[in-house]
Amino acid sequence: MTWETQKIAIVGAGVAGLCAAVYARTCGFDVDLIEQHETPGGLATRWRRGDYAFETCLHWLLGSNPDGRLHDMWDEVCDTDLLQFVYHEEFVRLETEHSEVLRVFADVDCLEREFLRVAPEDAVEIRQFTAAVRHLTDLPLPDPSADWIERGWTMLRMLPEIPLLARLSRLSAESYGARFTHPLLRRFFGEGPSARMSVLALAFSLAWQSQHNAGYPIGGSQAVIGAIAQRLGDLGGHLRCGAVVERILVENDAAVGVQLAGGETIRSDWVISAADGHATIYQLLDGRYTDASVESVFDRYESFPSYLQVSFGVARDLSTEPGYLTIVLDAPIAIDPETRLEQLSYRIFHYDPTCAIAGKTAVTCFLPTANFGHWTALRSTDPARYHAEKARIGEAVIAVLERRIPGIRRAIEVIDISTPATVIRYTRNWKGSMQGWLITPETGLGAIPATLPGLDRFIRVGQWIQPGGGLPSGLMTARAALKTICRGAHVPFRNRTHTLEM
Ligand SMILES: Cc1cc2nc3c(=O)[nH]c(=O)nc-3n(C[C@H](O)[C@H](O)[C@H](O)COP(=O)(O)OP(=O)(O)OC[C@H]3O[C@@H](n4cnc5c(N)ncnc54)[C@H](O)[C@@H]3O)c2cc1C
Q: Source organism's superkingdom (predicted)?
């Protein structure tokens, strides 16, 4: 067998699987990329209803700035010139139902001025936080695909900031928020799915916003996915949608291909799983390749919650409203038996003309819940109540916005409500998680091993091996996987522009 004939089967065409397929083709491997859904993208998706497109995934893409971190790596998997980025003045706006407002600006100097204006009593803490954000702007990211020389450089660059990184990574956003006295500042840090994340993750996201390296691409997540799929097509990669991988075939403790639902088998020299982390280990591989360290991840790490999304198309120009608005509620809303939300976050897509024609606006509201079991059970056992519950929540979400933007209800033309059951159906992610593992004080920023003990010629990529998830986790872990495979196959790793010696 020569390396030119080697083939890689890749399970799952989310961003991670697509990036892995592009790198694999660039390195000269044959590729079969297999996706269970009818379209690629996984969580990075949007859907059309009538005149409107409803985005679910993308708020911002790290690497949007041609001079910033990660941009060159995105260039390796797609033509970034195809993407047009928008930079919001405000990262998010928090409002109470009594007109109290906190504008969280993307620019760190504006953010500091606004926080000091709103909460002078918190001046010391505010200045400490914004100083930390400024320190992080120039720091490189831990990159699992970096070789030891690059890692050495990263460590050297990080050295002066180690005390700051250690201090912030040990604190959850929620506990950090408790240092502030202003209620909206406390809430900015301490509510929502990111509250249990290490505050370091939040500080990094603000640093990237401030650097204009985390823009929103017009066309949303599918613009990015489309650009990567286009590169894969140009390279002759084979993407097969609507095919479910049922098991990863193993012979003599080495992966030798995959078996699809219906029985068809695809033989390959390597298998990459870019599918859900739990199902890969415990279903596709029957739990045969685990040990205490693999299992401890599922015991110790906390996953991002799942979510409902209420999306509605409004026949009205909402361009004077903030793009991302969080409303702190007077009375919490019950989402399911275990979940009550004290605030609702709306994304008002007036900045993306692909979401609606001029004069109309797509609006989405994201409602986190960890109670995925309630929604999957309801959908399968009591469809009428499932639909009634969706309608109840949709009505509550609209009622809150009607109080903020009077008359909006009358202008709503389309309503669409998805639940954790929808997320599981379309992506098969464990517990319907929106983003894999949270970065917490316990996990730190480090990646989880991509291989499994005792199994050869198999490697994992994507959000389940890089705490924090996000599209960059797919890119970076895919690059790292192909470097490992190239090393094993004794071929040079190639990115788009040059050959790297192993
Ligand atoms: C509401 C929301 C907001 C977000 N905001 C951002 C943001 O602003 N910026 C950012 O960078 N990230 C964001 N994310 C996170 C980001 O979308 C995900 O972390 C990322 O898309 C995960 O990519 P992945 O390829 O690792 O996994 P997935 O997208 O889950 O892809 C896995 C793929 O495998 C397929 N699959 C699963 N099992 C099988 C099987 N047996 N056979 C065949 N195929 C299979 C699935 O259908 C899916 O397509 C957000 C996510 C959500 C939900």
A: Bacteria
Give the residue from 111, 64, 128, 106 showing the smallest Cα distance to 206. 106
3-class DSSP state of 235: coil
Q: Quick one: pLDDT at residue 150?
A: 79
Q: Are β-strands 270-273 and 7-11 bridged in parallel, bridged antiparallel, or unpaired?
A: parallel
Distance CA 232, CA 41 (A): 13
CA 133 centroid distance within chain: 21
Rg of the Cα trace of the chain?
Answer: 23
In this prediction, residue 256 carries a pLDDT of 98
CB 360 within 8 A of CB 414: no
Q: Which atom of ligand 1 is nearest to the CA of 284?
A: 41
| Helix or strand holding residue 216 (H, E) | strand 214-217
Residues contacting residue 59 through CB under 8 Å, at least 6 positions apart: 216, 324, 347
d(CA 303, CA 311): 24
| Cα–Cα dist 187/197, whole Å | 14
Going by their DSSP bridges, the two strands 30-35 and 7-11 should be labelled as parallel
Q: Choose the residue to mutate in 45, 57, 88, 281 for probing ligand 1, maximizing ligand atoms within 8 Å of C-beta.
A: 57
- Cβ-contact 363, 372 below 8 angstroms: no
CATH 3.50.50.60 boundaries in the chain:
3-44+219-302+435-500
Burial of 128 per CB tally in 10 Å (0-12, 13-18, 19+): exposed
Pocket flag, ligand 1, residue 462 (CB < 6 Å)? yes
Tokens of 187: 């809430």
- Give 133-137's long-range contacts (Cβ < 8 A, gap of 24+): 133/108, 133/203, 133/206, 133/207, 133/210, 134/108, 134/207, 134/210, 135/161, 135/164, 136/161, 136/164, 136/203, 136/204, 136/207, 137/108, 137/207, 137/208, 137/210, 137/211
438 lines ligand 1 (CB under 6 A): no
Q: Is 424 in the pocket of ligand 1 (CB under 6 A)?
A: no
In ligand 1, the atom with minimum distance to the C-alpha of 461 is 26
Q: What was the pLDDT predicted at 502?
A: 41
Residues of the chain with pLDDT below 70 are: 1-4, 193, 497-502
Indicate the pairing of strand 30-35 with strand 238-241. Answer: parallel
Ligand 1 atom closest to the CA of 243, numbered from 1: 43
Q: Does the Cβ of 420 fall within 6 Å of ligand 1?
A: no
Which pLDDT score, from 0 to 100, does residue 208 have? 94
Distance CA 51, CA 334 (A): 31
Which residue's CA is the nearest one to ligand 1's atom 4?
57
CATH top-level class of 3-44+219-302+435-500: alpha beta
**Pocket lining: 244 vs ligand 1, CB cutoff 6 Å:** yes
- Per-residue pLDDT reduced to its tens digit, 313-335: 999 999 999 999 999 999 999 99
Q: Residue 476: which region, alpha, beta or left (left: phi > 0; alpha: psi -120 to 50)?
A: alpha
CA distance 34 to 32: 6
